[in-house]
Amino acid sequence: MHGWIIIDKPLGPGSTQIVSAVKRALREGDYGRHKVGHGGTLDPLATGVLPVAIGEATKLAGRMLDASKRYDFTIRFGAQTDTLDLEGKVIAESPVRPTLPALEAVLARFTGPIEQVPPAYSALKVDGERAYDIARKGGDVVLATRKVTVFSLQLLSASGGELDEITLSAFVSKGTYIRSLARDIALALGTVGHVTMLRRTKAGPFTLEPAISLDKLAELGKGHALEETLLPLGAGLDDIPALSLNADQAGRLRKGLRLIGLAADDGLGFATLDDVPVALVETGGGETRVVRGFNLE
């Protein structure tokens, strides 16, 4: 079995627990042993799209980390927590509540290339130690500012004249922390805030449409029917041009050899032989080389 199962992650479990649930479903369905990995961490308090790669698709899981993502999230104004979400303790409060015109003016400042400081409670490493481990021990966490891109930022809902909370939709580049974005929007409005709801609606090419619940995953596993929800390996490469090979070309790539003069545009390509994935390849200077090979026949 090789491909993707898209989970609609609920509140509570972390990404590694979701991977364990998929492994359990594979065992209960007598699918044998397969490599399983997730395509992008979601915090326990976040819900939504979590792509899980199975078999040869795990070779593409790293690409999901680099993919753009879309989130819906709610900011509650008036209190900032140390974790920047509901899980933490309040460390700052403000009586200020922004107005809708002020919010609309500020949102434009957070669209496009921006700089942000990641949350102290994050998985980034400081001198070899996770930032959240340092923070939980009461240590000072100093994280460098990073450049990210917010491709779009839309207001989904707002409450009242003076806003207690708002819900936004953000389409962002890799490495963007929504909790930091929420913190910075609140500060720009002259108040403080934290995230009370975070839902990922898209990760790379994957959306909520094919996503299933953990209960459905368990049901399909016990019913030996996981194929019903399995997306093909190539679904993770929907943004990559497809390259059809002949048998000789596929044989050379499978041996790790380069192809000379293949009719392909420069850049990445998804090489197949009769719809069977062969490799993720890169073409440049008249040569095509393997980036990731797939052991499929």
Automatic annotation (TrEMBL):
Record domain tRNA pseudouridylate synthase B C-terminal: where: 179-236
Gene3D superfamilies, per the entry: Pseudouridine synthase (3.30.2350.10)
Keyword Translocase: no
Catalytic activity, as annotated: uridine(55) in tRNA = pseudouridine(55) in tRNA
Active site as annotated: D43
Keyword Hydrolase in record: no
EC number per UniProt: 5.4.99.25
Residues spanning the membrane: none
PANTHER family given in the database record: PSEUDOURIDYLATE SYNTHASE TRUB1 (PTHR13767:SF2), TRNA-PSEUDOURIDINE SYNTHASE (PTHR13767)
Family stated for the protein in its record: Belongs to the pseudouridine synthase TruB family. Type 1 subfamily.
NCBIfam families, sorted: TruB
Protein name per Swiss-Prot or TrEMBL: tRNA pseudouridine synthase B
Organism this protein belongs to: Sphingomonas hengshuiensis
Gene responsible for this protein: truB
